[in-house]
Amino acid sequence: MNPELQIKEVKIATSLQAIQNNISQFTTIRKEKGDDFKMEDFVTFSMGKKKGFEFETDPAFLYEQSCGRLTQYLGNCILQYFIESTQTQSNQAIFLDKEHPSSQEFTPKQLMKILRVPAINIGGKRTLRTAVIEYIDESTEKTIVTGFEYKPFSPMKPLVSELVRDCNEQSLFKINLWNDYHHTSLSTFKTNYGLTVTRSKLIEGEGGYIKINTYEPSSLKPVVSRASPMVEHIQYLCDGDKYIADHLINWLAFNVQFPHQKIKHAVLLGSKNQGTGKSMLIDAMRKILGSKNTNSIGIKDIGNGKQNWLVNRVFIAVEEVKDVSPRQMNKLKSLITEETVNADIKFGKYGEESNVSNFLFTSNERKSLYLDESDRRYFVVFSEAEPQEAGYYSNLNRWLTEEGGINEFYGMLLCHDLLDFNPDARPPMTEAKKALITDCVPDLDLWIREWCEERFTLYNSFKWEDLIEGMKFSPHSRDTSRAKYIKRILEDNGVACIRSVINGIRSNRWQEKDGNNEYIPF
After folding, report:
1. What is the CA radius of gyration of the chain?
2. Hey, which end of the chain has fewer CB within 10 Å, N or C?
3. Is pLDDT larger for residue 1 or for residue 95?
């Protein structure tokens, strides 16, 4: 007989014998246990030194005979000892050992391999490992640590209201919150994971999922204080204008007291000179709100295809903005005012996400953001002040970092009275915003506006040909063919075309409206 054929026959015979043994073993156990057999009779799971699954019979045969129940059993065993997390830099799902969650992270494929889940084919291109991963992903019995289910809260709010009510001039500097800051009465959930997860952070999500709010308040201990050095610095950044400084402090305080709520306008903090200390204010806010809950980006990041910089952030500083185009401004509109946005997360899913981010822009340019007269999304501050001496910033930094000033600033913002602040209202108009709107108007728009004002001092109306003739002798001679654009400029400035009859001759003339919104007669 051919040796190769003999070897094949031996292999086939061995396989048949194995199958017969499996059938015999399976039949014997079913007779003993009844039709409702237990999967533990065939599979054992251990988290000891030899971690993973041990099979008493062929896994492929067991899968077939159990009608797929093997997949559920393996998945449920894994969920007893592992917790799923999306809190990684890549935002992909990983698994952590519940007993030692900070020791190592496993991807689903790594976990299947470590636990010795067989990579057998169960039909088509699917393997048992794939089926187990899918079962875990769809299971409603799992616990997820995720940044996508984001419901931040302010643990200090009840304490702050009590302190403000009882606080007086004499006790202002004596009250601190060292003992009452953390909710020590609530039991922690796996503190060795690196998060102090309390019952208040457990969220019952859709589909029966138990989710954990990963918002972590700052570890700073706020102290009730006037925080005079930082308040004076904010007034300096506002050129000493108390009205503007008060609104800016209100805006900052609302971020701290209600990090889960959105303010429907952003702040543009500008200055003529660099080095005035705008970044010191941003750094202080990021420490108070927590670096994990905030971000500092450039304007180019706004146009990034992935929005990792946005999701789960309560405060975003966009630094050094300059000549932002109308197209970029359109992208900012929904980010500033809408409470949900469609976000594409790297290694994650594209979909609707909660948007609790409040934006603060900084610039050293007079022409930074492109704003028009109807804008309702920006509160603009622009300082003409010269930078302070080096000692000023050294003293302020020492107060913040070494003398507990950051804690005092935190306490001041937490206790700040917000009775006159409406987060949904249009921001106050400032002279800096008026100037920025003017700077954003194109030169052609300004020329036409000035030409019309001069014309209307002499006549009540003009012909289209008069305007075009004037443009021919101006720097905008090449724009005479832009009829639609020119007409829109005229209409935006209250000038419209009216068909009239003068001395029996019909003609189209352009005229302006009076204070009662009526056209001035010829």
Report:
1. 34
2. N
3. 95
Q: Which residues pair with 461 in a beta bridge?
A: 511
DSSP assigned state of 514? -
| Sheet containing 495-502: order of strands | 461-462, 505-512, 495-502
Amino acid in position 380:
V
Helix (H) or strand (E) holding 330: helix 326-337
| Residue 479 burial (CB count, 10 A) | 18
Q: Following DSSP, what letter does each residue of 139-166 receive, concatenated?
A: -SS-EEEESSS-----TTHHHHHHHHHH
- Picking from 368, 380, 364, 473, the residue whose alpha carbon sits closest to that of residue 426 is 380
DSSP 383-450: E-PPPPPHHHHHHHHHHHHTSSHHHHHHHHHHH---TT--TTSPPPP-HHHHHHHHHHS-HHHHHHHH
Distance (Å, rounded) from C-alpha 73 to C-alpha 446? Answer: 74
Q: What is the rounded distance in angstroms from the CA atom of residue 378 to the CA atom of residue 267?
A: 6
List the structure tokens of 7. 């070897």
**H/E element holding 19?**
helix 3-33
The alpha carbon of 394 is separated from its chain's Cα centroid by a whole number of angstroms, namely 33
CA nearest 319: which of 264, 262, 280, 371? 280
At 439-464, the pLDDT tens digits run: 877 778 888 888 998 888 888 889 89
Choose the weakest-confidence range: 7-16, 338-347, 384-393.
7-16
Residue-level pLDDT at 281:
97
Q: How many of the other CB atoms lie within 10 Å of CB of 385?
A: 14
Burial of 81 (0-12, 13-18, 19+ CB in 10 A): middle
Residue 178 and residue 415: Cα distance in Å, rounded?
15
Strand partners, 512: 495
* CB neighbour burial string for 443-471, b if at least 16 within 10 angstroms, e if fewer: ebbebbbebbeebbeeeebbebeebeebb
The distance from CA 461 to its chain's CA centroid, rounded to whole angstroms, is 52
Q: Which residue has the tokens 């790297």?
A: 346
N residues, the chain: 522
C-alpha to C-alpha distance for 35 and 501, rounded to whole angstroms:
101
The full DSSP string for 309-320 is TTTT-SEEEE-S
Question: What is the DSSP-derived secondary structure letter of residue 107?
Answer: -
User: Cα–chain-centroid distance for residue 46?
Assistant: 41
Looking at the chain, the number of H-run helices and the number of E-run strands are: 17, 20
Task: Evaluate if residue 358 carries a pLDDT over 50.
Answer: yes
Instruction: Provide the pairing of β-strand 358-363 with 350-354.
Output: unpaired
pLDDT of residue 395 exceeding 60: yes
